[in-house]
Amino acid sequence: MSIRHCPYCGEPIKPGDQVCSKTGKLLPFVTDVLSPGTTLHSRYEIQKLIHSGGMGYVYLAIDKRLQRQCVVKQVKEQVKSDAHLKKLEAEALQMAKLSHPNVAMVLDHFVEDNYYYLVVEYIEGKTLSQIYEERGVLEESEVVKWARDICDVVSYLHRKGAIHRDISPDNVMFTEEGHIKLVDFGTMRGLREIAAGKASKEGKFGFTPPEQWQGKPVPKSDIFAIGATIYYLLTG
What we know:
Elements: E1 39-40, E2 44-52, E3 56-63, E4 68-75, H1 82-96, E5 106-112, E6 115-121, E7 125-127, H2 128-135, H3 140-159, E8 162-163, E9 172-175, E10 180-182, E11 189-190, H4 191-195, H5 210-213, H6 219-235
Antiparallel strand pairs: 1-2, 2-3, 3-4, 4-6, 5-6, 7-9, 8-11, 9-10
Helix pairs in contact: 3-6
C-alpha cells in the first residue's frame, strides 16, 4: 500500500516530495499509510489521515453501509501471531464494554492485510489542545466545567477497574453540541493486568506521573494527568 497521494488531503505526491504542496504538512516516510479512497473491510472508505503517531494512524472514513462518518484507527505494527491478535481483540472488547456519555463508542474491529483496525465513533468538534492553540489561556469557569466532566468519566473508568493512562488536552474533545468526550483508549489497562506487570512504560511528557514511567500506574495517575491538563489550559 504505497503512498500515491497525500494521506492528509489527497493531493498527488511527486517522487522525492517530503512536504505536501497543498497543506504544507510533512509527509510520513512509510509505505503503510492508506491513501484516500481506499476501502477497508468492504465497508469503510478512507477520506484522509487525521493523525500519525508512534502506535499507528488515525483516519477519517465513511461507513458506506450506514452512510455516516467514522474514525478508523490502524495499529502500525502488523499482527505477529494468534496471541498478538487475541491481545488486540481483548483490548478492543474492553473498550467496547464502556458505556458513558463522555466516552467515544467503539463500533467495529477487524484485520485486513495483516493490519489490525479499530472503528470508533466520529465526533464533530475540537480537542482541548486545538481550542487552546486558537484562543490561548482559557477562562477558569469554562475549564472547571470541562474538568468536572473529565473527572466524571475517569471515575467511571476506575469503577470499571481500568486506568486510561493517556489523559491530556490532545485526548479530550469538545463537541459542537457543547459536550466533553474522552478519546483514544489505546493505552487503557485493567488493574489486574497492571498488577500482573503487563503495563508498558509509556505516556506523554508533562502529563504522565513518575510511577507510570516506571510501569506502575495507579488510579491516581489519571488524577495527576487531569490536574496537568487543567494547569496547561489555565497557564500554558
